[in-house]
């Protein structure tokens, strides 16, 4: 109903996203990151097929398919690795999306601790960036992460 042409622009996507997650702060950048991830060709729109493909991949895809998509969401500039800044930006956006409905107050220190914990787990060669191979290997080997993704 909201997208009769079968395509949606980012502003409408964000509006729909915040309706699905009403507790989140409307300033969260998370829907922006999801939109950009779906809009691979930078056309400024995503179509229904792209959206359904994503939903299918996330709900029925293999663990590896899901991990690849999650990695691409965190790899904001698309260069094949996740930096601490990219991880920080996405983690902050997730906390913003959750709004004030978190177990403990979220501040910069909380975000930094979460990012450091993720890097300790995922940056297998400790070079300061996380590659797709490191990400998929670490997540596949961590039973808690694999369980949560499945």
UniProtKB/TrEMBL annotation:
Pfam families referenced in this protein's UniProt entry, alphabetically: EF-hand_7, EF-hand_8
Keywords assigned: Calcium, Metal-binding, Repeat
Domain EF-hand: start-end pairs: 26-61, 62-97, 110-145
CDD domains per UniProt: EFh (cd00051)
SUPFAM superfamilies linked: EF-hand
GO molecular function: calcium ion binding
PROSITE patterns associated with the record: EF_HAND_1, EF_HAND_2
Gene3D superfamilies from the UniProt entry: EF-hand
Protein name (Swiss-Prot/TrEMBL): EF-hand domain-containing protein
Organism of origin: Cherax quadricarinatus
Classification of source organism: Eukaryota, Metazoa, Ecdysozoa, Arthropoda, Crustacea
